């Protein structure tokens, strides 16, 4: 049974990012913000059903609230995966309808599914039936290739919401399925924030969150003031975690205090020691904290000490203490 004492609030979330938002990253981010919703990397339904579930689905209880992003297009397989994920304690399962990579397209899921809203509706209906107490949500683009977003996006939202989805996070860019790399698809197609705002006006009963090109809490507050229900921040939250997350609980969720990055690092030392005792290598964790002091005096030395030493044999928590001394 899911812990009902920790409510999910999508007013601010950190985007699911492949190779980045693993369990060590999420633990660090949770220390910085108690309220921000955290997502796993995208995991395919096939991997969940047939893969190493302990490795793929494991998370620390302190990460809650945490959501898992799932990729796939087979309703039956997605339902089976959802059932497994919910049993592991995840609060939300988010279906990826936004990733434009060739590998994802070849598996007939991700952004290519913007062209098949009927199949998406079948998928989410199966997931909802298998979801128990967890919520099924969707992350999508405003369209792909030559689609006209102002026509395609509302039709997509209407059809998928009729299948039972109440919460959508919309990356406010088209995805070009041919000719652009995933990185270029995050930067080249123009952003259309007003279209996402319009979707909230057109579908007031749906939760509409916005994503794409958002780099600060100042920008997040502007989007919220324009009527969307939540803001998802990606790479800026990863590269500048303290600047985004230390103030998030106060500025976005209305708490009275901010978190402290120095105190967070003391807590991370305990976590690192415990994880290394289990066999985790130091650099598997420290790669996620390199940007902890970005924009502050001593940040370059912090990154240098950790980057040069974390991969060496015998490196441990004392390397973090050494790096902290240089701040």
What can you see in these coordinates?
This protein has helices spanning 23-32, 45-50, 53-57, 75-87, 102-106, 117-130, 149-162, 182-185, 193-202, 217-225, 235-239, 241-245, 248-251, 261-277, 282-286, 299-309, 317-325; strands at 12-14, 37-44, 66-71, 92-97, 135-144, 167-175, 207-211, 230-233. It has 327 residues and is an alpha/beta fold. The chain has two domains: 12-240, TIM Barrel; 261-325, Four Helix Bundle (Hemerythrin (Met), subunit A), CATH 1.20.120. The protein has an eight-stranded parallel β-barrel with strand order 1-2-3-4-5-6-7-8, surrounded by six helices. Strand 3, helix 4 (75-87) and strand 4 (92-97) form a beta-alpha-beta unit. Helix 4 packs parallel to helix 6 (117-130) and helix 6 runs parallel beside helix 7. The N and C termini lie far apart (44 Å).
């Amino acid at each position: 049974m899911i812990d009902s004492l920790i409510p999910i609030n999508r007013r601010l979330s950190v985007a699911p990012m492949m190779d980045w938002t693993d369990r060590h990253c999420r633990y660090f981010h949770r220390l910085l913000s108690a309220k921000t919703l955290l997502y796993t990397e995208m995991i395919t339904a096939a991997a969940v059903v047939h893969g190493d579930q302990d490795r793929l689905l494991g998370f620390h209880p302190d990460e809650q609230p945490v959501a898992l992003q799932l990729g796939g297009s087979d309703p039956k397989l997605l339902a089976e995966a959802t059932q497994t994920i919910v049993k592991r304690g995840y609060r939300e399962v988010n279906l990826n309808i936004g990733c434009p990579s060739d590998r994802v397209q070849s598996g007939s899921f991700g952004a290519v599914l913007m062209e098949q809203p009927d199949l998406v509706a079948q998928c989410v209906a199966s997931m909802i039936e298998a979801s128990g107490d967890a919520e099924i949500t969707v992350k999508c683009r405003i369209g792909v290739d030559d689609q006209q977003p102002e026509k395609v996006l509302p039709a997509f939202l209407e059809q998928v919401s009729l299948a039972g989805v109440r919460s959508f996070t919309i990356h406010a860019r088209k995805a070009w399925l041919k000719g652009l790399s995933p990185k270029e698809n995050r930067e080249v197609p123009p952003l259309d924030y007003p279209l996402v705002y319009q979707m909230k006006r057109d579908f007031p009963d749906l939760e509409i969150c916005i994503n794409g090109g958002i780099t600060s809490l100042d920008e997040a507050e502007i989007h919220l003031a324009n009527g969307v229900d939540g803001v998802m921040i990606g790479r800026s939250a990863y590269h500048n975690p303290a600047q985004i997350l230390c103030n998030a609980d106060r500025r976005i969720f209305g708490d009275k205090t901010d978190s402290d990055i120095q105190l967070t690092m003391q807590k991370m030392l305990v976590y690192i020691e415990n994880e290394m005792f289990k066999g985790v290598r130091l650099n598997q964790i420290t790669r996620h904290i390199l940007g902890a002091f970005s924009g502050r005096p001593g940040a370059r030395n912090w990154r240098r000490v950790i980057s040069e030493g974390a991969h060496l044999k015998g490196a441990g928590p004392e390397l973090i203490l050494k790096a902290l001394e240089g701040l």
